[in-house]
Write a structure and sequence with these properties.
Helix content: 25-40%
Radius of gyration: 25 Å
Shape: globular
Number of helices: 15
Largest sheet: 8 strands, antiparallel
Strand content: 25-35%
CATH superfamily of the largest domain: P-loop containing nucleotide triphosphate hydrolases
Length: about 550
């Protein structure tokens, strides 16, 4: 592992490399990761406490932001502040202990899972947050499976031990059985609920006793003792102390040892216990994560694996965000640097358009705050001001013909017509809708043979519609009215089959319709899976695909409906 020297945390610019050793150093000190969880497990709270202990903020915000507490850095949107939930992924870059950390907070709700899946393509590791009382929940398991599929190293934080919790041994067993991973308990809780006093660091064999601070806004004072110190027995109840000794003996005898190679391959998860809201165990988690998480990893592309040390700059765009600065109607395209060195004003190839672009406006992002960045290295996430030039999944590279693997796509499962009730606000309505659709969370369609030009929206979950309507009104001053539609299943029609009688003559099941997406491709909308099966059985010559990106592969692969 690359040795680093402790340094005060700061958000600062990085100088261009002077030689190969400087480049190696910059790559080795990068850590790019996401925090994932089921809703309400404490993901955004943990994000805020990482910023606190990393020195990036002096006062930790609160998801609820009551009275004297500030709102969280990652949940900067007004809607997020009002609802206390994350609706969009957020990039936070800061320095701590000589590491340059790119931290991505993600939405937990399944309606925003597409955003989270895209973020997982841009990171090298994840911290998975689990509620100590609930264990592994459905959304956590789905996100874990995506991580496991990509071999992403996973660090587990079992949160909320300040509340009544399940037996920690039972939690360890559930992790092993459900996730089918090697599990190593890095620390162990000292009690739970009202009797939760801190954690025992198994690596250093030290008990860390924390003191609570008002709202967890400041770093918690901590006292460290050897487990044999009489003060440990004094600070715990007799029952808790006896259980602790018994559990630690069992772990030492039967528990797994930390294997850095298994952690790096994603086959072992180090497990940490604590309470993010009270700052218990957060510092130990952050330090251990930086020590054992991998630096930037190679990325798959049309030219094979592209290593971070590849001399030519390359990266891909995984997220687009409109109106981070409401004073300027700009769009920020978030780019993960994969290889080489990014320098402001450089020229790159843009394979999707076949054009060469000059990247004149580049920014380092910290929540809502932005500053100009002149240089970035593999692992970094930077913002590019694009004004509609960029699209999600775009590759940018100094090397012509290079394209990274496509990002995950999901077909819409909810549909609704979006009406503009005020003709006087039509221009604001259209402009706002155009900008927000470019973020990729909601798709727009036009119903075939419709007499009215009313946009049909499609999304993975209905909460996406709520967010779009709220932002239309708050950011563009355009009210809207949503009319839910009954369709739940969409399939795209192969271009060569549009002339088939079933499509040409609109011979679809009753209530089903044809539509055109933003790229002009024809899609069929069905009410149920049964109607889709009925249509395909009756019309075997019509090839349907689950995603439009599959269309170019259908000729070789056959029907992929």
């Amino acid at each position: 592992m690359h040795a680093v020297h402790p340094a005060e945390a700061q958000v600062s610019k990085t100088a261009p490399p002077l030689n190969g050793m400087s480049m190696e150093h910059e790559i080795a000190r990068r850590r790019t990761f996401a925090i994932i969880s089921h809703p309400d497990a404490g993901k955004t709270t943990l994000t805020e406490k990482f910023l606190l202990y990393g020195g990036a903020v002096q006062l930790a915000g609160s998801v609820t932001a009551r009275k004297a507490q500030s709102a969280t850095t990652s949940d900067w949107m007004e809607l997020e502040k009002q609802r206390g939930i994350s609706v969009s992924s957020t990039v936070l870059q800061f320095e701590y202990r000589g590491f340059c950390i790119n931290l991505l907070d993600t939405p937990g709700h399944r309606d925003f899972s597409e955003d989270t899946y895209r973020v997982l393509m841009a990171v090298d590791a994840v911290v998975m947050v689990i509620d100590a009382a609930k264990g592994i929940e459905s959304q956590t398991l789905k996100l874990f499976e995506m991580c496991r599929l990509r071999g992403i190293p996973i660090f587990t934080f079992v949160n909320k031990f300040d509340r009544p919790a399940r037996d920690p041994l039972a939690i360890i067993d559930e992790l092993e059985q459900t996730l089918q991973l090697h599990v190593c308990a890095m620390n162990w809780p000292l009690g739970d609920g009202a009797e939760f006093r801190g954690v025992y660091d198994r690596q250093r064999r030290q008990a860390h006793f924390f003191e609570r601070t008002p709202g967890g806004a400041y770093r918690s004072p901590v006292a460290v003792h050897d487990v044999s110190d009489p003060q440990v027995r004094e600070r715990l109840s007799q029952t808790t102390y006896a259980a602790l000794l018994e559990q630690l003996e069992m772990l030492d005898a039967a528990g797994e040892r930390l294997d850095p190679a298994l952690v790096a391959s994603g086959d072992m998860t180090p497990v940490f216990f604590g309470s993010a809201i009270n700052n218990f165990g957060v510092h130990l988690l952050l330090d251990a994560f930086l020590d054992f998480a991998p630096p930037p990893r190679p990325r798959r592309s049309s030219k094979g694996l592209i290593a971070p040390r590849h001399p030519a700059f390359s990266g891909f765009i995984f997220k687009i965000q409109s109106n981070m600065d409401p004073k300027h109607r700009d769009q920020i395209a978030f780019l993960r640097v994969c290889s080489g060195v990014f320098t402001r004003d450089m020229k790159v190839f843009h394979p999707r358009t076949g054009k060469s672009l000059r990247l004149a406006s580049s920014q380092r992002v910290f929540g809502r705050d932005r500053e100009t960045v002149d240089t970035a290295y593999p692992g970094d996430v930077i913002g590019l001001v694009g004004h509609g030039v960029f699209g999600i999944g775009d590759t940018l590279s100094e090397e012509e013909g290079l394209a990274f693997d496509p990002l995950p796509q999901f077909p819409p499962e909810c549909f609704a017509l979006l009406h503009n009730p005020a003709s006087s606000a039509y221009k604001r309505f259209r402009t706002g809708l155009e900008h927000l659709l470019q973020e990729g969370a909601v798709q727009a369609f036009s119903l075939t043979d419709s007499v009215q030009n009313i946009p049909l929206l499609g999304a993975v979950g209905v909460l996406q519609f709520d967010v779009l309507q709220y932002r239309l009104e708050s950011e563009y001053g355009a009210a809207s009215r949503l009319e839910p539609m009954p369709w739940r299943v969409i399939r795209w029609v192969h271009p060569d089959d549009i002339g088939q009688a079933a499509i040409r003559d609109r011979k679809l099941p009753t209530g089903c319709r044809l539509a055109t997406d933003a790229a002009g491709r024809t899609a069929a909308l069905f009410n149920t899976d049964w109607e889709l099966r009925y249509f395909t059985e009756k019309n075997p010559a019509v090839r349907l695909t689950r995603l439009p990106s599959v269309l170019q592969r259908v000729d070789n692969d056959g029907d992929v409906a």
